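Annotated sample (chain length 552).
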Amino acid sequence: MNLSPLQKARYEYSPKLPGMLRGGIAEICVKEGAQTASVADQDKIKALFPNTYGKKEITFVKGQNTAEAKKQVVGVILSGGQAPGGHNVITGLYDALKAANKDNVLYGFKGGPDGLLKDDYVVFDDAFIDAYRNTGGFDIIGSGRTKLETKEQFAVVAENAKKNGLTAIVIIGGDDSNTNAATLAEYMAANNTGVQVIGCPKTIDGDLKNEDIEASFGFDTATKTYSELIGNIERDANSAKKYWHFVKVMGRSASHVALECALETQPNICLIGEEVAAKKMSLAQITNYIADSVEKRAANGDNFGVAIIPEGIVEFVPEFSKLIAEINELLAGSKTDEFNALPSWDAKYNFIKAGLTAESFGVFDILPQGIQQQLFLERDPHGNVQVSLIESEKLFSEMVKEELAKRKAAGTYKGKFGAQHHFFGYEGRCAFPSNFDADYCYSLGYNAFMLISYGYTGYLSKVSNISKPADEWVAGGMPITKMMNMERRNGEDKPVIRKALVELDGKPFKFFEANRDKWAVETCFTYPGAIQYYGPTEVCDITTKTLALEQN
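Output written by the structure step:
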C-alpha cells in the first residue's frame, strides 16, 4: 500500500487518555453515583426497560481493579453515517482488551447491524488494527443503517453471539443506533444471554448530547473541515469581490454544524433552523433578512458575501413543513404513479394546484421551478418527500435574486448580485480526525472495555470535561435510558433518545446573536485554516467554539 507522509505519521500518533485510565488496567476502579431516571415519560420508559432502567451513573477512578477476571470476546459494529474517529474507538477498545488479557478477542461485524444479523465478521489482530490507527472513515469494517428493533432481529443477534462466544457487543452510532443499543441490552438481559451491550456517541451533526454527553465524536473534525473550506471561500470572495456564496452544510434535524461554522468563520449570514421555527419565520421573511444584508453591503460597495444554510432549514419553516405534509398526502398510495404518468410539467403543475390548499399552493407557487420539481423527486421508503435532496442554498439565492430585482425596480437597491453555490457534507465525514477526535474516540473505546469488564450493560461510554486538556478528562458511563423519552414514530409511540437541538438561550447561540448584525454588514471574515496535527498545543488540541463557550 502506498502511504502519504501524513498517513504514516498519523499511524504513529499516540492518543491521549483521561488521567484515570492511564497507568494500566489493574489501577482502574469504579465509583458509583446516583440512580438515574429518563428525561421524560419515566413510567413508560421504566415499563419498557425493567432490567436496565434506573441504573447508577459511574465514574472510573484510580484504585485497585476489582473486576472479575475472565476472557472477554467482544463484537463491535459501526452504525449509521460516517464520522471521523470511528477507527480510534475500535483501536482503543482493542488495546484495552489486549492490555487486560492477551487472549481477549475482538470481532468486527461488517456493514453495521447487518453484520450481526448475517454473522459476517473479521477477527482483529495487531496488524489489522495498526493499519487504521488515527485515520478517518469507517472502511475498517464498513457501516450500515439497518435498525435493530424487533424481537426477531434480537433473537438472531443473540444466537449469533452465542455461536461466537460473545460476552459483549459495542455499538458505535448516533441517537437511533444507541436507542437500538438500549433495546438490545434490555432483550439480552431479559433473556439471560450473558451478553452485555455498550454504546458510543457518534454523529457529526452534534445532536447527540446532553448534560452527560458534552459532544458526539466527529463533530470537531467535521466542523473544522467545513470551516476551513468556508474560510477559503470567504478569502476568495473578499479577493474577487463579485459573488455571494451560499454554502449548505450538514445537519438536517439540528443546526449545530451551521452554528459552529459561523462561530469559526464569521460569515455575513447564517440561518439557524431552531430560531426559524421559534419565530415562525416564513420563506419571505428569511429571503428579506438575507436581501437586507446584500443591500446594506452593496451600499458600502461590497457586492459579495457568504451565507451558511443548514441542510434541513426548510423543515423548520412552518409554512414549508405544512406544504410538505400536504404533498405527502397528495401523493399517497397509487397517486404517485398517477402523478408520474402525467405528460408534462404543466400537467403536473395543475395536478398539484388542484390538490393543495390555497395557502400551501401560495407557498409552492413562489418557489423557483427547479425547487418545485425537487419536491416531487423519488420518495423515501415511507412515501415522504426527501427533504435532504432539496437544494436549499439555491432556493434562497434564487428568492433573494428575485427580491433584489424588485428592490432595484423600486430604486432602493443599486448593487450587483451574482451567486455561487456549495454543499459541504461528504467532505467532512471521513477526514483525518483532529487530535481532539483521535484522543476522544480512543478514550471512548478504551472506556467501553472498562464498562464491559465491570459487568455493565445498557450503558453509554462517557468521557466528560472534554474542553480541558485530556489528562483532566473524566471517564465513566451512564445508562442509555437516562437520555430517552417517548416520541411518535411511523404512527407508534416509541422510546428514543431525545435529539439535542440548538438552544436559543445557550451561550454559543447568544454569542452568535450578539455579533451577527455587525457580521451581516461588515466584512469580519475569519480564516481557520487546515486542521493542525503537529505543533503548539493551543493550535493542535483546540476544541470547537461551541464546546468552549458551553463549558467556559
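Annotation: The first strand starts at residue 28 and ends at 35.
Annotation: The chain has 23 helices and 15 strands.
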